[in-house]
């Protein structure tokens, strides 16, 4: 049975870029452990000789011409919701030291 | 009786000038205001709806051609990007977000003259079965306000059942169209995967998500599907549609082979639900359909399979909400890392966080093969069993849900119990096959939904079967 430790939860939160409250850590630790226990049933499934499925309709490499199409959306429209911008660019906090 | 005529008739009357689009829009907006207590609607799209109605009425007056859905008001689940109001996915993360473009489905409906009048409530980002995971409000069941509407498209279904509009749009990743349709008593249609473009719809689980109509009748649902269906260059997973209209439906039932799914009719089904489904089966038999029981043993694994694949894809899709480009932004972050994690922690509700964490776990190094890859392989097994079943049966049949609408708050404390309510709907998404929920009467005053499923791409045949069954049950 899979039971998550507090460290497991903190590691997942770090990977997922979430900062959790102490209550959330405790709650998710119990709930996700319970859900993982439920999905354990998959381990017993006999799938010998079967390949995994990622796409159900059998489409492969859908190609299109590399041309510019006008959808009536300007760069200004797309940038309207950006919280911090400068000279038509998205501005983020400093990344390197 | 509904106050709305069949959709095709409404459009025809608008085309002839016998009904005005502006009056239809006012009727919809008035009903939305009158039924506010059900919390089905996040926001109305008044100004744009009135402008579009006026321009359609003017076009009719000037003898210009108007479309097949001329003047027909509709409501979109609030995970469709639309003009004229915010698109929130019922999440604090997207509160106030104004879409810079519209969903292809909306564009196609508007091109035929349909008018979006409001945006409907949902479980935030589509994560849930009751709308109780909405960050804004909980939609009450039109038949009993102490019960849930079902989810995640609960607002859309309630809107139709409350007569706000003739049809609404929903999305279905694991049952989110069919499940609330069953709980509220509407027709909910989940098309074959890829038949309707997902472009401009807030992504949940991309290999499972489909878009479909909620309506009062199969004919209405078929007409809406016909307008939306088909290849879209903005969604490379879209598939070719039938050349024939999805409104041309065969009514033949005699000799049709209908497999009753054994795994959906056994233990755990509420007696009232079982009764209604059995009554429907008896009627189909009396109408000389060839009805027999069929077993798909791996359906027992479908829910576990879904709750690996779905959170995995959610954790990937929701990684775009980083607080830098759109959506909620944390105010006081000291550096970029903190800006990411604070924005996400403040903007996402509990269910989104839970699914992101679960998805991150099953995709993480050391667990990927044991969970994600294994689930994808079990998915193959589910697909193969459906293919085998469809060698014997034209259609499969069962309930949509093991119970009728549950009480508000009944499952909110235990996420696993909430997940288990999806047990009869997720398999169709794993296999990408079409499925529909149609009303099959009441149990103790609450609607019961009958589910019909068909092989991939046979949407027109399934709609025909649904229409015939609808007539038998009415």
Walk me through what this model shows.
The complex is a heterodimer of chains A (about 100) and B (about 475). By secondary structure, chain A is mainly α. Chain A has a domain at about 5-45. Chain A is about 35% helix and about 5% strand. Chain A contains 3 helices and 2 strands. Chain A has a two-stranded antiparallel sheet. In chain A, strand 1 (about 85) and strand 2 (about 90) form a beta hairpin. The longest helix of chain A is centred in the N-terminal third of the chain and has 18 residues, at about 20-40. The model of chain A has no long low-confidence stretch (mean pLDDT about 95). The longest helix of chain B has 25 residues, at about 370-390. With about 475 residues, chain B is an alpha/beta fold. Chain B is globular. Chain B has a domain at about 5-230: Amidase signature (AS) enzymes. In chain B, strand 2, helix 4 and strand 3 (about 115-120) form a beta-alpha-beta unit. Helices cover about 40% and strands about 15% of the residues of chain B. Chain B has helices at about 5-15, 20-35, 45-60, 105-110, 155-160, 180-185, 220-230, 270-285, 300-315, 335-345, 350-365, 370-390, 415-420, 425-430, 460-474, and strands at about 40-45, 75, 115-120, 140, 145-150, 165-170, 185-190, 210-215, 255-260, 290-295, 395-400, 435-445, 445-455. The model of chain B has no long low-confidence stretch (mean pLDDT about 95). The chains are: A mainly alpha (about 100), B alpha/beta (about 475). At the A-B interface, helix 1 and helix 2 of A face helix 9, helix 10, helix 11, helix 12 and helix 13 of B.
């Amino acid at each position: 049975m899979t039971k998550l430790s507090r460290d497991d939860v903190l590691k997942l939160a770090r990977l997922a870029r979430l900062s959790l409250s102490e209550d959330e850590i405790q709650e998710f630790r119990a709930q996700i452990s319970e859900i993982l226990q439920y999905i354990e049933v998959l381990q017993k499934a006999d799938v010998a000789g079967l390949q995994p499925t990622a796409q159900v309709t059998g489409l492969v490499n859908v190609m299109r011409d590399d041309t510019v199409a006008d959808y009536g959306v300007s760069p200004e429209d797309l940038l309207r919701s950006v919280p911090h911008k400068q000279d038509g660019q998205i501005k983020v906090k400093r990344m390197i030291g | 009786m509904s106050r709305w005529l069949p959709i095709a008739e409404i459009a025809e009357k608008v085309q002839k000038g016998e009904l005005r689009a502006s009056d239809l829009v006012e009727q919809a907006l008035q009903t939305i205001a009158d039924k506010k207590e059900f919390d089905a609607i996040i926001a109305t799209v008044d100004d744009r709806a009135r402008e579009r109605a006026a321009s359609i009425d003017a076009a009719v007056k000037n003898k210009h051609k108007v479309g097949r859905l001329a003047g027909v008001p509709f409501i979109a689940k609030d995970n469709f990007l639309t003009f004229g109001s915010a698109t929130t996915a019922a999440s604090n993360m997207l509160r106030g977000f104004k879409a810079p473009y519209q969903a292809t489905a909306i564009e196609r409906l508007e091109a035929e003259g349909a008018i979006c009048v409001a945006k409907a409530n949902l479980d935030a980002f589509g994560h849930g079965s009751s709308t109780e995971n909405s960050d804004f409000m909980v939609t009450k069941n039109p038949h009993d306000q102490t019960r849930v509407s079902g989810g995640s498209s609960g607002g859309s279904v309630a809107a139709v059942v409350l007569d706000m509009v003739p049809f609404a749009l929903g999305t279905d990743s694991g049952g989110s169209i069919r499940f609330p349709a069953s709980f509220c008593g509407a027709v909910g249609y989940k098309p074959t995967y890829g038949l309707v473009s997902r472009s401009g719809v807030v992504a949940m689980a991309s290999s499972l998500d489909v878009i479909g109509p909620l309506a009062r009748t199969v004919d209405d649902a078929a007409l809406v599907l016909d307008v939306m269906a088909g290849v879209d260059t903005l969604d490379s997973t879209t598939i070719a549609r039938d050349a024939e209209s999805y409104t041309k439906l065969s009514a033949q039932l005699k000799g049709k082979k209908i497999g009753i799914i054994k795994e959906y009719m056994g233990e755990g089904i509420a007696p009232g639900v079982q009764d209604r489904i059995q009554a429907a089966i008896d009627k189909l038999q009396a109408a000389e359909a060839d009805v027999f029981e069929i077993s798909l043993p791996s359906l027992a694994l479908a829910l576990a399979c879904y709750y690996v694949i779905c959170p995995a894809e959610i954790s990937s899709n929701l990684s775009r909400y980083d607080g830098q480009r759109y959506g909620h932004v944390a105010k006081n972050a000291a550096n970029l890392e903190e800006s990411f994690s604070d924005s996400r922690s403040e903007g996402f509700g509990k269910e989104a966080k839970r699914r992101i964490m679960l998805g991150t776990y099953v995709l993480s190094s050391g667990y990927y093969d044991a969970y994600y890859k294994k689930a994808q392989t079990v998915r193959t097994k589910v697909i193969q069993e459906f293919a085998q079943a469809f060698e014997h049966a034209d259609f499969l049949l069962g309930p949509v849900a093991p119970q009728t609408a549950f009480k508000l708050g009944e499952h909110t404390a235990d996420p696993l119990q909430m997940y288990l309510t999806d047990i009869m709907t997720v398999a169709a998404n794993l296999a990408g096959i079409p499925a529909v929920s149609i009303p099959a009467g009441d149990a103790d005053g609450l609607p019961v939904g009958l589910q019909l499923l068909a092989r991939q791409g046979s949407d027109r045949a399934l709609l025909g079967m649904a229409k015939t069954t609808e007539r038998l049950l009415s």
